[in-house]
What does this fold into?
Amino acid sequence: DIQMTQSPSSVSASVGDRVTITCRASQGISSLLAWYQQKPGKAPNLLIYGASSLQSGVPSRFSGSRSGTDFTLTISSLQPEDFATYYCQQGNSFPLTFGQGTKLEIK
Amino acid sequence: QLQLQESGPGLVKPSETLSLTCTVSGGSISSSSYFWDWIRQPPGKGLEWIGSMYYSGNTYYNPSLKSRVTISADTSENQFSLKLSSVTAADTAVYHCAIHIAPSGDYPPHYFDYWGQGALVTVSS
It folds into this structure.
């Protein structure tokens, strides 16, 4: 199985800050990685797929990148609605696996 | 735009079988581009993939649950279902159904495009 190690587990930031979340795959997955945003009591929402492609309707302040087996989600200027939990997920092979999640909290 | 809705008992006794159905609206699930998925989330914890079924009938399950899981579909009703047998308290979770689009058929990539809101299932006597 491919393990996805996500960090940090939580981060505190202010509106307007730039935030970066990292996910590392235990083996090569090409660029087959997605990022999801989940708000309390809601289903996850696909933000980015293919490591860097923005899902339709997702604001451009969200971006993703890849370096080898390391993946990064960046929010360039935090907005109040961005405070949520973020998960990475490898889409390369079954069993599909998620990172542990990063809770983004208001400072 | 597909809408998904889970339904089923919210309380299941230990050792019994958890059964959930996902009803899809806004489009047909009978597409060679679709996988039908189940994902769960224990209270306060992260996401765990349970399994996926391709429209052809091929199924893929989480190895940790494989001996207890069955995913099936009723395309005439535009529904797919999850059965998890011999449940314990550790199976208490919000269960989400999802659909992912597979433009290359039964091949990667696998990302979850559409999600249901989730159904809380508690395992308790």
The two ends of chain A are 36 Å apart (CA to CA).
